[in-house]
Amino acid sequence: MAKRQLTPEQRERKRATAHARYLRVAEKERAAARAWNAANKERRRQWREQNREKVRSYFRKWAAGNPEHQRERDRKRRAENPAKRKAELAKWKAANAEECRVHVRNRNARLRDAPGAHTATDIERLLVLQEGKCAACAVPLIRSGKGRFHVDHIVPLKPRKGNPQGTNDPSNLQLLCPPCNISKHNSDPREWKQRLASH
Ligand SMILES: [Zn+2]
């Protein structure tokens, strides 16, 4: 028997009918699965308990493909427990103190339209280069807590009127003890050295 040619309308109706049938079957299967799941709660719980690694690995795989779910879950957890979130953040900041400071400096530099950037490694390098001493008065630098050394932009990012602006590159950085840095403030480096020498 020769295949009957369908008109576009007939073809569309056939497709719609097939699709509706598919949806009905799928819903029936889902309903059956739901019913089975509901009737076998204890059995499922036991299975999950005995296959923890499997469940975990399955979830990990699924979560990797659903980053927005992960983000939403993290957001909810943080919102539900702000105190815990705060503590976590404080812990992270303490463990990444130099990175935090670098981040702030780089951000400030951008806000002041100063070119250049540096990393926590650059600061470590400077510490070695300066043999752990203040670049101005050679006092041993304190590395943490109160009295910790300051990272100074040799040519200031925010200079006094009429003076040039420095970059945020490692080549424009030095480590100073807090009193030296406070005395330097936004002075031009040459002017400050002269001021120091005159004391
Ligand atoms: Zn000093």
CATH second-level architecture of the domain at 96-197: Orthogonal Bundle
- Uncertain ranges: none
Can you summarize the main beta sheet? 2 strands, antiparallel
Class of secondary structure makeup: mainly alpha
Secondary-structure element pattern, one letter each: HHHHHHHEEHH
* Number of discrete helical segments: 9
Average per-residue pLDDT, rounded, comes to 91
Distance between the termini: 112 Å
**Number of DSSP strands?**
2
According to CATH, what is the topology of the domain at 96-197?
Answer: DNA Binding (I), subunit A
The Rg value, from CA coordinates, equals 33 Å
What is the strand content?
Answer: under 5%
Classified by CATH, the class of the domain at 96-197 is Mainly Alpha
Share of helix among residues? 55-70%
**Which kinds of small molecule does this entry bind, naming each only once?**
zinc ion
Q: Strands of the biggest beta sheet: in what spatial order? A: 1-2
Morphology: elongated
Features:
single chain; 199 residues; mainly alpha; DNA Binding (I), subunit A; two-stranded antiparallel sheet; binds zinc ion
Give the SSE map.
Blueprint: H1 8-39, H2 41-50, H3 52-64, H4 67-80, H5 82-95, H6 97-111, H7 120-129, E1 150-153, E2 173-176, H8 178-184, H9 189-197
Antiparallel strand pairs: 1-2
The structure holds zinc ion (ZN).
Zinc ion (ZN) binds at residues 134, 136-137, 139, 176-177, 180.
Structure description:
The chain is mainly alpha-helical. The protein has a domain of 102 residues: Orthogonal Bundle (DNA Binding (I), subunit A), CATH 1.10.30. The chain is built from nine helices and two strands, in the order αααααααββαα. The protein has a two-stranded antiparallel ribbon with strand order 1-2. The longest helix is centred in the N-terminal third of the chain and has 32 residues. It is elongated, with a radius of gyration of 33 Å. The model has no long low-confidence stretch (mean pLDDT 91). The structure holds zinc ion. The site of zinc ion (ZN) has 7 residues, from loops.
